[in-house]
Amino acid sequence: MELGMYNKIPLSEISSRFQAHLLGKDRLISKFGTLSSITNVPELQLSFVLNKKYLEDFNNSSIGACIVHKSLEEHCTKNKSYLLTSENPEHLFYTVFMHYYENGNFENLNTKQGSNNIIASSAIIHNSVVIGNECKIMDNVVVLPNTIIGDRVTIKPNTVIGGDGFQVKNINGRRKVLPHVGGVRIMDDVEIGSSVCIDKGLFGEFTTIHNETKIDNLVQIAHSVVIGKACTITAGSSIAGTVTIGNNVWLGVNCSINHLLSIGDFSLIGTGSVVIKSVSPHKKVFGSPAKTIGLICKCRGDIVSNENQLVCNKCGTHYLLIENQLIESK
Description:
Layout: E1 9-10, H1 11-17, E2 21-23, E3 28-29, E4 31-32, E5 45-48, H2 52-59, E6 65-69, E7 81-85, H3 89-102, E8 112-113, E9 118-119, E10 124-125, E11 129-131, E12 136-137, E13 142-143, E14 147-149, E15 154-155, E16 160-163, E17 168-171, E18 174-177, E19 183-186, E20 191-192, E21 197-199, E22 206-209, E23 214-215, E24 220-221, E25 226-227, E26 232-233, E27 238-239, E28 244-245, E29 250-251, E30 256-257, E31 262-263, E32 268-269, E33 274-275, E34 283-286, E35 291-296, E36 302-306, E37 309-312, E38 318-322, E39 325-328
Parallel strand pairs: 4-5, 5-6, 6-7, 8-11, 9-12, 10-13, 11-14, 12-15, 13-16, 14-19, 15-20, 16-21, 19-22, 20-23, 21-24, 22-25, 23-26, 24-27, 25-28, 26-29, 27-30, 28-31, 29-32, 30-33, 32-34
Antiparallel strand pairs: 1-3, 2-7, 17-18, 34-35, 35-36, 36-37, 37-38, 38-39
């Protein structure tokens, strides 16, 4: 699920308005994003590239159009669409994005609320928020637009859901924190502690917390993060933008996850760890920078080598290591 613009905009309109030369097919644009942005409609996305390497990545992607410096025109292909510019493509991209944001072109959710919810009188629930059934929203919680809350969700005091992430860019000569046009989706049976901040997606995508994940106090979850089912995120953890966390993951106290990483199912991140590389499933990592110190079972027991076999020392489950991937042995 993602939010886009109310009306699709022809590239030719953007080209004319911002003095960029349209090369290739005139196509409709309904969303913005980088090459790493998550989207269900890449053919409707406008992106940007800064050098030949990323232009090749764009050419091999399913993204519809990008802004590129005119000096790279010879590396453009016939089946893609480009806006050629003599200025910095990134600056132009964010200038275009801000123009359509300031003119109110982006979608918002329709407000809706289910039954049997307990919402504190001091909580602030904005318009364009969807709340399911049997939720408990405590004192001084702020829920900002484009937030979807499932059933039986608990949100404890002073938490902020759906604020803008911290994306700083130079727009027309001034440094600005960019407005975010996506949302937050919190699935069923999630519990969120006190003074937690969960930022919405930047370009229309939803920061998503899946079923039965439990989040402790003082946790920061940045824009466009996806957290799987039944995860445990302990106090003080900080998760940077566009991180994907699998199912049944444990994040220890005060750990930090760098942006654009993936954390595999059943992995465990130790207290105070600084994760700067993606983590494979069932890995136990610790330190700054975090390094693998062992293997972890789905029951949270340690996987040890026993007579040339990998066995959980807690539940006795056997595993096989095939092409560096840990697979449960049936």
